[in-house]
Each structure stands twice: as C-alpha cells, then as structure tokens.
Specification:
The chain has about 110 residues and is an alpha/beta fold. The protein is about 35% helix and about 20% strand. It has one domain. It is globular, with a radius of gyration of 14 Å. It comes from Olea europaea subsp. europaea.
C-alpha cells in the first residue's frame, strides 16, 4: 500500500478503563497496513499533572511529550502517513483540560 504524505486522516478514538481488552484491540488494528496506532499518548500528561509515582515514571516523562494540549494538537490530530489512526487512551489521561469538546461531559 502506498503511504500518504501528511494528508488528513480519520481518527478512531478508544477511551477505556485500565486493565481492559483495549490493548488487544490496539494490536489488532496495528496489523492493518492502512492504520497508525497510538497507545495512551496522554498517559505522560496524567503522570505529570497528578504526580502519581510509577517505577517507570521519570523514564517515560523523559521520552514522551507530557503536555496534553501539545499531544492532542501535534500528535493525535496531526497529519498522517496512513489513512487511519487508532488512538487508545484510558480515562485517567483526561485529568487536565485538553480542549477536547466532549471532555467536560465525560468528567462529570
């Protein structure tokens, strides 16, 4: 399949609870030639905002963008090389106002 160069893509969002079958679904989408996948791109934002301690916290924060607004604008909604993008996230990643239209309703 030909790769697309910076074209607008269709995004499939999956917001799930931790320890669900969402990772299995992500892996199945990753097998498609026309699909990019993002695995919890807002998780570093969650770690930064909440200060939650995890053994891998500092390493993850040094390697991934932790500004949620930047992640949404520059990663999740950026142009892509494939036709589709599957974006898996857990609800804990929505702890900061990210400018997502449906976010306020989800956090009530």
């Amino acid at each position: 399949m030909l790769e697309r160069k910076g074209e607008e893509i269709e995004i499939i969002h999956l917001w799930s609870t931790p320890r669900s079958l969402s990772t299995s679904l992500l892996y199945s989408f990753a097998q498609r030639d026309d699909m990019e996948v993002l695995d919890e791109p807002l998780y570093p934002n969650f770690l930064r905002i909440t200060g939650v301690e995890r053994p891998y916290r500092e390493e993850l924060l040094s390697k991934m963008e932790s500004d949620g607004n930047k992640v949404m604008k520059e990663i999740v909604f950026s142009p892509g090389k494939k036709k589709y993008r599957f974006c898996k996230g857990t609800l804990c990643g929505l702890c900061e106002n990210l400018g997502i239209p449906f976010q306020a309703a989800m956090l009530k």
